[in-house]
């Protein structure tokens, strides 16, 4: 099977999360950029607020797509020590890449959220959404950063993932929902008809619309 696009993937994923619908303690956090269209569909279906939780992969210089780690909001950094040792990557290079990616993380934080306050997760159930899981480095950094903010429960939810990666996360968070775990997995993009890059403008528009719609829903229920 293939998802038509990220929005459709989110709609399917939401059916696996029906137990969290219409609960006031639930917040949906998306990993930008690709996770936002997925999470938007999930949040709309569940009637939950939507926000972003920013993560940046730390790429190995000269090897496009190969990540030696990741950073997340809250100052968390996760390093793949086995890969660092294999490629003999100096600490100075890791720090240089970290500084560059942290600047981009802060830029996106301002761009996506604007003047809106960060959603409080303390004591709440957080559904952390991306468009898929391959190595899981970005999601791991996000989960670690979230744990420090004391949520009641962390649920990782993705439309498609490597089965082994899903199993690894079951030991790290409270619940893992992987809607589709094909074998062989290969790459996330193979399981989408349209896997075009999500733009900053699309992310901002989806977040603004979700905030507006959720506020309207709250007013109607008051």
Strand order of the largest sheet: 2-1-6-7-8
Report the CATH C-level class of the domain at 6-55 and 120-221.
Alpha Beta
Instruction: Using the 3D structure, state the CATH architecture of the domain at 6-55 and 120-221.
Output: 3-Layer(aba) Sandwich
Flag low-confidence runs: none
Instruction: Tell me the total number of β-strands.
Output: 8
Which percent range fits the helix content? Answer: 40-55%
Q: Summarize the biggest pleated sheet.
A: 5 strands, parallel
β-sheet strand percentage: 15-25%
| CATH fold descriptor of the domain at 6-55 and 120-221 | Rossmann fold
Number of helices: 7
Radius of gyration: 17 Å
Silhouette: globular
> Can you write the helix and strand succession as a string?
HEHEEEEHHEHEHEH
Structural class designation: alpha/beta
Q: How widely separated are the two ends?
A: 42 Å
Mean of the pLDDT scores?
A: 93
